[in-house]
Amino acid sequence: MNLYLGLDFGTSGSRAVVIDSNREVKARTQCNWETTPNNKLTDIWQRGLYSLISDIPQALRQDIRAIAIDGTSATILLCDQNGIPVTEALLYNDSRGVEMIDRLRSIAPLNHPVISATSSLAKLLWLIQNVPLSNEIYYFLHQADWLGFLLHGNLGVSDYHNALKLGYDVGSLCYPEWLVNFVLGEVREKIRLPEVVRPGEVVGNVTGKVAQSLGLSPECVVCGGTTDSIAAFLASGATSLGDAVTSLGSTLVLKLLSRSRVDDAKYGIYSHRLGNLWLVGGASNTGGAVLRRFFSDAELECLSQEINADAESGLDYYPLLDQGDRFPINDPELLPRLEPRPENHVLFLHGLLESIARIEFRGYELLQALSAAPVKRVFSAGAGAQNTTWTKIRGRLLQVPMVKAVSRDAAYGSAILAMGIDERSLTYQ
Q: pTM (2 decimals)?
């Protein structure tokens, strides 16, 4: 039996899904973590990676033929020549790169996706300027890149979904001249940008050590990965022009399948290549993480049942954990708006859910206007998709069919990518 493993690394935990050739789920595992000042994120990720695989029944592990990993977009780190991290991991929403915006504008073309405080390139510039580096060679990697390295041992390999916010040209499938000139002119031999492969392309077999310690077949291959939101799109079952997927996780991520590529840094909009079409989208810092600041999972479930989804809350928030958003308002200085806060917890939650839905609505308005691709239906992915009240509120605002995803698990999408081996086999109509 041929099996395929998808691994999803988010902000607070990781998940694994094993599927067979018919895309039927054969096993699921998960690992939640808590970050503390004494625990490095990379150590937590590494333990999570091995734990996820070890928890899969051995009888299935030995039949896994391919593995693909998704990670949070623009979560990055620098490693030494042995793949050992030499900097802290900078997360997807880390906005220290705001200091580099003027520098980015002088390097990159107008409205390029890298011109953002949270882009991979912004973080690289920040690291170069603020972290003391010796004369060694360092490798710049994304979260999924480094986790893949731990399995296949080939240091310095990324995929063109993760590399988009580093400046990789997904249209021409190469690093653009402006980025090459920057690397040659300022970084030179000190920092190596990753070799970029297609998502799903075979990078290499698992190492002998990994095969032995984790009970995998030495014939098992590791493929180029993807980002968590694209993995969620693959998992959703969306296949047609005008299909959209909203990922309701810690953050809010929108993706719309279009014939047109749109990159507009003014609004935090960028396009990923997907099959013969483009996945136009953006990511907001609003989302489930804000809800969990105020409510437990049990409270969210209980209080949501008391909300009348057909009525307006009368509250107008912009729910953020911290200052700054990326889309549909790309402003690192945007302040959270969470007042007035009513004493009634049901009303407060109603206002939060409705306000996040309003941000989703504004996002799709922009994506439709700039891509000329009308939204025909919206698939919902992520933990927030389980909240039926929230789905009804979103449907009231969007006025399009709200479709239940085939799977809400991004790891399932990564497993599909591993099964396809090559993203070119994914054809959309």
A: 0.85
